[in-house]
């Protein structure tokens, strides 16, 4: 039986929207948005799309008209009643009313601000300017739109069974990863793959497959819409944009040196328990830990998002021990370019020494490598970052020099201020 | 949108039927049925199910009540108007009115005769007795029902995503075969997989995938219902049951020796062109060719269905040459236990020497080997054969002693009468 009404509804579509909701975004964006509104609501920032894989000429692959349609569609979105009810009524990280009524009133009235789009040398220059709490919410949907439009451009040329086999292969590939992870006792793993997903539908499939295949080893998803629809935990804490913007706003080197700790002091006032996770690598993990205030050692854990994860985790364990903390009470969240072999190694290495958890991103929701003859669906390294605050450039160093960003002289200043020593270059896959 | 009507219709199902139509059968069954009605309409025969893979205990796996429901359902089927129109109006092998009006009148009124079912030592004894033209039509649906019920017993224990991944893996596996075959210039391949298919829906998928993936290298399907629904050629000629029953009816050794040629003489009166395909292995290919009448060398081709296919094909080529025929005008159809590596080898070996064609069966429509942990969906060797005619046992020797069937003393007599020499044993996979 053909469902005629559905078919008719579908063939009237002007647009098959990629982002269908304001909460089709990462949970930590909403947490950070609330913090920013509390502490720096009037800061003017610019976010910009940066394609670190320059061989992928996005402006040649993705039609500008389609891109504008998708971005314009996102600007029409507002929070639905059901979404608002979920945010107001749900328990996040064991806490009721994570989002204050004041924040929710504001968020219910929000529409995303305008964007600026230009083509240059085969790439799109896509920037967002305005108040930090609004502009920051563009990051995830902008990335998801670009990733999925690029995929659609490739998929549009494929035949019916070829398409079905493509997804059959992708499902098979993901399921083999699930089967690889299943024997790992005590594994805790979450989906962090919204920003670079192949598509919304595919992320939704991956999340459900993980839940069936891994049971309670799968602890949730960073995607709020999927968490809501599939009755899962929404997962996430905070990101580099907080120290990057705080640092850019610093007036002196001394203030700059204190900026990353100021971010966490503000966070400390708002959150406790498993939300007290340090992200130490923005300006180098080593210097960050060496100069960290005593009270930070009392936090629950550390997220490792660049560099050599074993080295960073060992450094964290030593740091806790030096401050009289028992690492077995602490948590390390690995979230940088993970795939199953790496997850398994890290899980085994640190078992019994520290609690571990994994935020699995691109290679969960977009591992289409090897599935088309010319690898036209392989994921690539697209980011959308705060590039300036109140007209001053931001800087990120990270624990891998290849991920560093910002003007050269500012990078040099930050390296000096944050006491960054020798760093190892590591290839950036995704 | 949920199509409520479809959902409601589905959850009322008492039975999800496996065989949905009297033409969900092999084309050659219908051709042979017409021949039998013309030449031996009143012969009483018994067909019986034989599970050559005794390790698969069908009666432990498949519920007897479900089996009876499926078989009873088949007895309720009659030819629909659309099916009748297709058989009467379609062109088969380039010929209009392949089925005579007299045959069609009879077929339109047909219901399949009763079956006899008993359990014995973990197996089902399933037999069909009655007039040959009716009983013979049980073979394919009976096999398809047993194969699919066994699969459903395994599938019934699987979870939702596990099921989806199972089919994803099966699709991936089939598509890899399609991609392997695609570069073979001049390949001609057909689906012969109805009898041992995983399921009807899966066979239908495989056929469509072959059509998209192989284009005109895919020449059609033996399944009449799928040929009709998908607008493909229906493919097939004749099978062992004809010489087996003719031979069983022979009164003397001399008559027995002539029986296989009598079958083809009857066929010769009805069919020409690509339907004049010799199936020489029922009582051994070597003796068959040595004693064959001159006029048979004028036929279009030979089907190789047991033994060493290269040896049989080389023997056929030599035989044609010895009779002044140019093998390049002839066709050899390979149809025994094929998979892609074998198809490719045979295609390359005989390219330019003889026209080749491939009837691909079980490993097209049921290659679920390796797709479940305990291989519970691997195909197995189930047949449904004429075991007696007018109370006298039938015999099949074939070119592989492991496929021989019949009473021991009768096999010995047939070996003597048909001048069968040394034979090589070959494992029977499917």
From TrEMBL, chains A, B:
From the UniProt record, list the reaction(s) this protein catalyses. 5-phospho-alpha-D-ribose 1-diphosphate + nicotinate + ATP + H2O = nicotinate beta-D-ribonucleotide + ADP + phosphate + diphosphate
At the top level, the lineage of the source is Bacteria
Gene3D superfamilies xref list:
nicotinate phosphoribosyltransferase
User: What positions does the domain Nicotinate/nicotinamide phosphoribosyltransferase occupy?
Assistant: 188-422
Does the entry feature the keyword Magnesium, yes or no? no
Modified after translation how? Transiently phosphorylated on a His residue during the reaction cycle. Phosphorylation strongly increases the affinity for substrates and increases the rate of nicotinate D-ribonucleotide production. Dephosphorylation regenerates the low-affinity form of the enzyme, leading to product release.
Q: Which parts of the sequence carry Phosphohistidine? A: 240
Protein name stated in the entry: Nicotinate phosphoribosyltransferase
